[in-house]
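Q: Got a minute? One more chain.
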Amino acid sequence: MHLMQTLVLVLPYIQIALAFLLVGGVLLQRSDASVGGALSGGSDGPATQFSRRGAEKQLFNATVIVAILFVLSNILAYLL
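A: Always. Here it is, folded:
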């Protein structure tokens, strides 16, 4: 039972840290759609695609992992 009490005390801090990491990861990612490009189609057209490479790919993967951990921590908090 001691482990459950510790988890109940620590879980909110874990959720806050994951929330900050998730927001930071989302804000650091590149955005292709600007307002002008979205409204006028841009010079490259609406079907412009790009592939993630290097640090951008690592940031994307880290953001996905943090999002999954955030959802799992919220489910755990609900169950406790």
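A: Helices lie at 2-28, 35-40, 55-79.
Q: Perfect, thanks.
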